[in-house]
Write a structure and sequence with these properties.
- This protein has 581 residues and is of the alpha+beta class.
- The chain has 3 domains: 4-114, Rieske [2Fe-2S] iron-sulphur domain (Rieske Iron-sulfur Protein, 3-layer Sandwich), CATH 2.102.10.10; 132-304 and 350-368 and 393-418, Metallo-beta-lactamase, Chain A; 439-579, Nonspecific Lipid-transfer Protein, Chain A, CATH 3.30.1050.
- Helices cover 22% and strands 26% of the residues.
- An 8-stranded mixed sheet has the order 18-17-16-14-13-12-27-28.
- The protein starts with a strand and ends with a helix.
- Residues 11-109 form the Rieske domain.
């Protein structure tokens, strides 16, 4: 059965604001069903108000001075809602959690995944693995090459070129045979559409050799390969699979793609199982599978680094001093480390590997971002994990190979992890910027931008309106100074107008400065604004200091799937000119 998410309860922004710290009892008035929400600062957990024992209703536990537990009205069973564990009787059950999400309108949604643990369907007992039977080789960033018996599977191949326009570049030097490795793969998994996972420069090289290679992606709301036709790359064997269903590769090998609880419209993770041994790759998921994941897998890998956002490095004005930004980054990175360490402790994999964070802002014009955007150290995370558990850890280097059979039998086996040969180049020290910047620069002089009416055409195509926000867009040079002859204009998204001055009504305001080559490339090709925001190609100010989720979510995820029709736009202008307008 395909995994689905059922909406159980929706709370309005006002109801969300009225939630108190600790335990909240809430009811869906239309269905009569009851739920419990536990609030701890900004963190929320939720479950059905139904005891696992015999379905009794929970009420406040007056004996609990900490305000974390509830008591069943049938047999006095007690549930600690902060941990979702039953404390009376102790060590008995865990309560099934619901997925907590926020809608675009800032409503709070409670969702139930069904089935919640789809990997438990058709369970298989682990079989003994021969040495060399299962090998995992790290290539770069989030790219792993898995040998699984006589099959080879590759995760998220970003092995050449930039990501997010020109903002991210590979930190590690991939093995020199990376293209041969890709071509030898039996299947490729691409987790989501971000260009450090879906790398068109990499796939272009692969398509030149093996256009029919099987590629698997999850059935996300926005298709992973939404921009394939526009890219011009010929890949003929892309398979979109439903969530939560085992995909059988051969008698020993199967995999299952799961959705992210926070970004189900675009993010996924994967479980690979070979002879009953599970490998869990949560990739970039914020809350993979709504927080429900298999425990005691043989190998778990996840992101760890942080820094994959323009916030706060690209912001200025108000509180955004250099001191504030530095402290915020330090605090957030520490939070991420602690969260990953707790997750590993809870899931208890045999081996854990931090990956999907090995990028660098290498272009000289992004020197400030590189110096400011401090990322987590994988060894620091691994040391934190070792303090709190007996989980084995692996900090990978390009070309290093982990032999799962050896590591499971004897973690001290010197052949369990084979490091790359001595003298192997680990870190890149040069990047071929030229060809990629040439593509971006080609948009600057495009015919479209000789006509100021492109602004109305583009934002009408984008389809975002009826929202009280005024944005000033400024095209800039490399240093974010106004580009000579560039556009500087206002967009009022309340009525999608383009006024010469800010309106007199009360309104939130944002100023977005964007490097001219990137913004025009994005506009011309109808690309998502992640290239601008995550790629550090903007500088932003806002008044008041409010994150406009609806605006950014639309331009980062929800733009139309086909680009603007610039040919018809230009033809229309020619026809007007011929008529003397």
């Amino acid at each position: 059965i395909e995994q689905t998410a059922e909406l159980l309860l929706c709370l309005s922004p006002t109801e969300v604001a009225n939630l108190k710290e600790g335990i909240n009892f809430v009811r869906n008035k239309s269905t009569g069903k009851d739920y419990i929400l536990y609030k701890s600062k900004s963190h929320l957990r939720a479950c059905k108000n139904m005891c696992k024992h015999q379905g009794g209703l929970f009420i406040k536990d007056i004996e609990d001075l900490d305000g974390r537990s509830v008591k069943c009205t049938k047999h006095n069973w007690k549930l600690d809602v902060s941990s979702m564990k039953y404390i009376n009787p102790p060590g008995s059950f865990c309560q099934d959690e619901l997925v907590v999400e926020k809608s675009e309108e800032n409503e709070l949604l409670l969702l139930e995944l069904n089935p919640p643990n789809p990997w438990d369907s058709e369970p298989r007992s682990p079989e003994d693995l021969a040495f060399g039977e299962v090998q995992i080789t790290y290539l770069t960033h989030a790219c792993m090459d898995l040998k699984l018996g006589d099959k080879r599977m590759v995760f998220d191949p970003w092995l050449t070129g930039p990501a997010f326009a020109r903002g991210w570049w590979l930190l590690h030097e991939p093995p020199s045979d990376w293209l041969e490795r890709l071509c030898q793969a039996d299947l490729i998994y691409i987790s989501h559409m971000h260009s450090d996972h879906l790398s068109y420069p990499t796939l272009k090289k692969l398509a030149g050799r093996r256009p029919d290679i099987p590629i698997y992606v999850g059935k996300t709301e926005r298709p992973v390969f939404w921009n394939l036709n526009q890219s011009g790359i010929q890949l003929t064997n892309i398979n979109v699979v439903p969530f939560g269903i085992w995909q059988q590769v051969d008698k020993n090998l199967r995999f299952m793609i799961l959705m992210d609880g926070v970004h189900p419209e675009m993010d996924t993770c994967i479980i690979v199982e070979y002879k009953g041994h599970k490998i869990l790759n949560t990739v970039d998921c914020t809350r993979p599978n709504g927080g429900r994941l298999p425990v005691k897998v043989d190998l778990m890998m996840s992101d760890f680094a942080g820094g994959a956002s323009g916030f706060p490095m690209t912001f200025s004005g108000g509180k955004f001093t250099e001191e504030w930004k530095a402290q915020f980054i330090k605090t957030e990175r520490k939070k991420l480390l602690n969260y990953k360490a707790r997750l590993v402790k809870d899931l208890q994999p045999r081996i854990y590997c931090p990956f999907a964070g090995y990028f660098v802002e290498a272009h000289p014009s992004d020197k400030y971002i590189k110096e400011t955007n401090i990322k987590n150290d994988p060894d620091e995370l691994n040391n934190l994990i070792k303090k709190n558990s007996d989980v084995l850890t692996w900090t990978p280097q390009p070309g290093a190979t982990l032999d799962l059979g050896r590591m499971l039998k004897d973690p001290t086996d010197s052949k369990g992890i084979i490091e790359p040969p001595e003298g192997t180049k680990i870190y890149k020290d040069s990047w071929d910027f030229g060809p990629y910047l040439k593509i971006l620069n080609a948009a600057v002089g495009d015919e479209i931008f000789r006509h100021s009416s492109w602004i109305k055409e583009y934002f009408t195509w984008a389809g975002f309106k009826d929202y009280n926000l005024v944005v000033r867009m400024i095209e800039t040079d490399e240093d974010f100074s106004p580009f000579p002859g560039g556009y500087d204009y206002l967009v009022d998204f309340l009525d999608l107008s383009f006024p010469k001055e800010r309106p007199s009504r009360e309104h939130p305001y944002e100023e977005i400065r964007s490097r001219v080559d990137v913004i025009r490339h994005v506009v011309k090709n109808g690309l998502l604004w992640d290239d601008l925001y995550i790629g550090f190609q903007t500088r932003l100010q806002r008044d008041p200091d409010i994150y406009h989720h609806l605006f950014w979510n639309h331009f980062q995820i929800k733009l139309p799937l086909t680009p603007p029709d610039w040919t018809s736009f230009l033809m229309y202008l020619i026809s007007l000119n011929s008529q003397g307008y």
